[in-house]
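For this section, I looked closely at a protein sequence along with its fold in token form, which I now present.
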Amino acid sequence: MTLLYTHPSGFQHVTPPSHPEQVARLEAVLAALKGMDLDRREAPEAPDDEILRCHPASYLSLVRRKLPDQGWTMLDADTYLSPGSLAAARHAVGGVCAAVDAVLAGQAPNAFVAMRPPGHHTERAKAMGFCIFNAIAIGAMRALDHHGLDRVAVLDFDVHHGNGTQDLLWNEPRALFASTHQHPLYPGTGAAGERGAHGQILNVPLQAGTGGDPARAAWRGICDRVLAWRPQLVLVSAGFDAHAQDPLASLAWDEADFTAITRMICDAATSCSAPVVSVLEGGYDLAALGRSVRAHVEVLRETTA
């Protein structure tokens, strides 16, 4: 059975009115998953040691200092902190780490972590793009250093390039990072020539307007790379803002494309006997987000059958 990790603290990270990364996103995701046959678990709060796998103590201290008693403060031009933001970000990291532990222990073949804020834009010591801690990179490093894995794959289909994940894994020879994303677009990284210190990064930039067929073709190529890598764990940055209805970008995918891409990823992981942990990233049209998440998790559930 697919594991679902979430926590009420995700509702306590409150952004200003009209901000796209809003509480309603998590409400839409959980409403879409309501009634599905999932093993629902509470995401624990990550201790400092987990966060410090990827972020320096000085950055964690900065987040603590900037945390407001009321209202909002800003970590960058579009990344806000409210009084509940640090707890939410800690539970987001803790959910990913708990999911990694569970699937590697054989408790389930896959898991989905439904938390916010997202994380894949956070660089080593820099908040960006609504993100506070890079939960998926921390999960990858936990798998490598705590569990002693030799090869992990991190796959990102968010419409925005996961610059933070790339930054944190650039020098890590045990981690394959592969991404499709609209380019040029925020944050401006993700060119095909960005290949990592060990050639273990694969960026597939897509032009505005790219629909499902080219996207699926790109993911067939990425999954061939995954099969050659033979990972022992697959982590997915699951952003759903490549949907045609999303207001922050201009790709033209739909729920069927997310289904097909998720199935490719799961098939590749199964061929490598690798469990999968999927982590919510972007997606800002609430209706499209809910439908797309449900389609994604349905494929995860099929893989457990």
